[in-house]
Amino acid sequence: MLASDFDTHSLASNQASITSVNSLASLLREKMQAFPQLIRKKKRETKDYKIKIFVIIMFFIIIFLIGYAYIAYHQQVLTKSYFQKIKFNSVDRIFRILNHDDKEVISGQLGVTLSSDSAPFHCLEEQRRSDGSVCIEWNGVARLHMNFEDKGVFRCYTLQWQALTPGLLPTDCYELKRDNGLWFGGGITKGQEWSLSYANFDFMPYASGDSKVHQFGNGVKRYFINSIGVAMQVSERTPLQLGINRTENQFCLRAANDDFTFVNRLTALPQLDYKICTTEDMRSLHMLMTQQSLWDGLKEQDIQVLHSLLEEPVWRIPNQDLPDSLNETVICDYSESAIAMGLGHIVINEFWQENIGDFSVDRARFPTLKDTIDVLHRRGFKVVFTIQPFISTDSVNFKDAVRRKLLIYERHSERSIPALTRYKSCSSAGVLDITNNASVPWLLEKLQRLKEEYGVKSFYLDLGTGYNLPHYYQCRQPLDNPDMYARMLTASLEGEGLMAVSTASVVPKPPIFLSTPPANATWEGLRETLAAVLNYGVIGYPFVLPGAIGGDYLLERSLTKMVTFYSLGQPPLPDPELFIRWLQLATFLPAMQFSHLPSEYRSDLVTRVAQEMKEVRQTVVIALLKKYLSPSMNEGLPLVRPLWMMDPHDPACLIVSDEFSVGEELIVAPILDAGREEREVYLPQGVWKDGIDGSLRKGSRWMHGYRVPKEKIAYFRKMPDNTRF
């Protein structure tokens, strides 16, 4: 039984094992058969996953394109074309101007200070103008007028913002740099930047000042030009503030009143009014914006004086910081030393008076000044007296001027209380009120007496700058801004023989020159002199009188107040190398002015250089200055020009700040740093003759390591285009 049972169990177990093996084999076979299907299923799942991802991506792309199209459509709807070449979106106020080829040349944002939720609409009928201008208003906030003037190849657009609510300051910002274009104009700035595109300063009132202390220099003009063929001109009635932000790439104009520069509010709320002109040629555009005929009303005598200033030096009698340092002996001795260098204009500073504002000669120090002046006239010199609108409280004329109410008075006070200021050696002075009809005749009478008694025919008008007016000034008639004072006084005295003025905001009538700011007797002062001459030429002042060769004063410390707040005498004899390099530069400028004489050095090198420069000026420079005198008078082009005026399409000409041209036929590359006897020189296109060795040089290229010995200056005369090497 047990055996039988075992056998039976063993048989059943064997059968079960066989069945189990067969099942496993069958399962394996099934799995093996299903494996390809599983792989194919996995592939299908992967493929389906990729399709899903692709569909999702396409979905988002379509959504993005639809959104972009929606935004672009609405932008297109909101951006309207005005006068064919203006594109303006009145919602975000993006403003663009296109050129003749429909290429964008300038863009910016108008109304920067407007809130983003201000909705624009077209002005009501009574707010529109009949001159064809477009009028857009942001309800109760601001109003914008745009107009267009077609001048053939030039297209000019006028924009005028009117603030409609107190506290709003109309502000427009444009691209500071675009397509490698650079902004020029505005005169000299505090940082002495060659281009406004290199400047960086917050909003500052645009008015004449001392560039050592204030943002702008003594010569201003509301004119700016970009090398890509865009120029701006701002109305004189706009209380203009200028700001440049290199970080945000912005060049901004703002209308804002303040408590000094624009204290006389010409409108109830600020208005920003300016013009933009475009063309393909930067030089032609500059001529359009600065063009004016300076010939009107000129007499033959004026032309003779103008020529004499180009041909002969200006001799400034040296002085110390006190009036007693000047007397007849000083004048006679100086003129005898100067005559070896040539004749010219002898300028006597304000110390010919006992007190500033006397307008009469101090007889204690000048008992026989009339005889001295007669001797100087017979020798061929022209004597020039320095005059000022300031009247010292110590002057005999101060009480008379107060009694006649001829002086500027304190704001918010009776007109009998004069406003006082400080100027040079005078610590307390009143200022003639040029808007008082009695002031000019009073001054002219005293100048006429000087002419008759002493035979003086010329005057240097020392006005300081706009910031030399009393801070709380008030004139009988309100001034647009402090610079209007200098403009009105200069115009009133144009027929009295003015030789030069110390400040200007419009081009004075020839033969009047604009002086550069007083220069420190340092290498930095030398560089600043060249920058001032070139920058003033850019904004339309063709006749610029540089300061004295070697510097006007010497201060080792930084100035915290204007130079005109100090009574600064002649600087000590400058370093010979500085004097030589300054003399070499001045030889090629519109006029030359001496205080220290070359003979003071008792140096053969200085004497030889002075004689060589005298010969170069007489044989080369003066002829060119006279040749380009007429284009300067007619077209506003300066006699001494930056290189970009020769070739505005040459990128290298735009960045070169230490070379210049006399007219279009002479390139000058002075040395402006101590101890240097070589420099980089760039010559514009053409063939040029080297003034040092007489060799011919091909233009449109740089010359590296060009040698300039101490006694030489690099200059190159343009040769005919068919000149062969």
From TrEMBL:
GO molecular function, one term: hydrolase activity, hydrolyzing O-glycosyl compounds
Transmembrane segments: 51-73
Keywords recorded for this protein, A-Z: Glycosidase, Hydrolase, Membrane, Signal, Transmembrane, Transmembrane helix
The Glycoside hydrolase family 31 TIM barrel domain, residue ranges: 350-470, 520-597
Residue span(s) of domain Glycosyl hydrolase family 31 C-terminal: 636-716
Biological process per Gene Ontology, one example term: carbohydrate metabolic process
Listed Pfam families: Glyco_hydro_31_2nd (PF01055), Glyco_hydro_31_3rd (PF21365)
Family note: Belongs to the glycosyl hydrolase 31 family.
PANTHER family: GLYCOSIDASE FAMILY 31 (PTHR43053), SITS-BINDING PROTEIN (PTHR43053:SF6)
Protein known as: Myogenesis-regulating glycosidase isoform X4
Upper lineage: Eukaryota, Metazoa, Ecdysozoa, Arthropoda, Hexapoda
Gene assigned in the entry: LOC4814402
